[in-house]
Write a structure and sequence with these properties.
It comes from Acetobacter aceti. The mean pLDDT is about 90. The chain is of the alpha/beta class. Helix 4 runs parallel beside helix 13 and helix 5 crosses helix 13.
């Protein structure tokens, strides 16, 4: 970190990001209470934010290496947000410094015919992280209480018994998600769920950018415009999902995402905070193995240059 940044921002200042945007399950949750342009009062510039992110990547890399080496815990990162919220960019910029051997990304698109023959959590469970690994869900189990809630006609494909789309039906899905996440937590998985919170005006700006810049037009989909018409319905669905599934063992974080660089910094600091809470230490080797390694070192050292 540069001396200029050291004089303005400390690691203690950044540590507030690990908890600032965490949802308290005991309090009512309304997205309208959260400012998509919030900067935690740090007053950082974009250039400063990028420099801090670079420093944070090195810290994350060290912590991820310990997680992989110990293989006693795992981490599941869920990324959700409206179209153009920055999920792909967050994954690219936050996780670019970690060892790819210990990290994977699963992007959940619309379920195919085989997946629709199973319960909605089937494809989610088989993608959950094994010990020592970090898995990122780009969209997740929450699509089944978001997209299908805004477009309940999609439920007709799911081979479901009984009446669907009722309040009891949605409550059942929330219960299933909570129970699933509680199960993962009891198996040693640290769960972090992020909603990247952008404003409707910012989404419009980003969609126009994709159309204005020819090299970005491949990112544009006509469905983005269609889904934008359901903005309020999606916000209600998110409020319901967060309210019913935010728990201490699987917390939600509503991250201000109008400024991409700040969203990435807030996400990485939250991940770092959770990994630091594991209080990991380098694996301790057995005495016999250490002696063998010392012997190998001595043998290699005696070889002529």
């Amino acid at each position: 970190m540069s001396s200029a940044l050291k004089s303005r921002v400390t690691l203690d200042d950044l540590a507030v990001l690990a908890t600032r945007y965490r949802i308290d399950p005991s309090k009512p949750f309304h997205l309208s209470d959260y400012d998509p342009s919030d900067d935690a009062g740090l007053g950082l510039t974009k250039q400063e934010g990028k420099a801090l992110l670079k420093h944070a990547k090195r810290r994350l890399s060290d912590l991820q290496e310990l997680l992989y080496a110990n293989s006693e815990a795992s981490m599941l990162i869920v990324l959700q947000g409206m179209d153009t919220a920055g999920k792909d960019g967050t994954i690219k910029h936050v996780m670019s410094g970690v060892n790819p051997a210990g990290v994977s990304v699963t992007s959940f698109k619309q379920p195919g015919p085989q997946e629709l023959l199973h319960g909605f959590l089937w494809r989610i469970h088989i993608s959950a992280p094994s010990s020592g690994r970090i898995v990122i869900f780009n969209r997740s189990q929450y699509e089944d209480v978001l997209v299908t809630r805004v477009h309940p006609e999609l439920l007709e494909r799911e081979h479901l018994p009984g009446e669907v789309g009722t309040p009891a039906f949605w409550q059942g899905r929330f219960d299933d998600i909570r129970h699933f996440e509680h199960y993962l937590s009891r198996q040693g998985t640290v769960i972090l769920k992020f909603f990247l919170n952008i404003s409707k005006d910012e989404q419009r700006t980003r969609l126009l950018s994709r159309l204005d810049i020819k090299d970005k037009r491949w990112k544009f989909s006509s469905s983005d415009i269609k889904e934008r018409q359901f903005w309020d319905q999606y916000h209600y669905a998110y409020e319901e999902a967060v309210t019913h599934t935010s728990r201490d063992y699987a917390p939600w974080f509503v991250i201000p995402a109008n400024h991409k660089w700040f969203a990435r910094l807030a996400v990485i600091e939250t991940i770092i905070g959770a990994l630091e809470n594991l209080k990991q230490k380098p694996p301790v080797m057995e005495a016999g193995l250490m002696q063998s390694l010392d012997a190998y070192k001595d043998e290699l050292s005696k070889e002529p240059d």
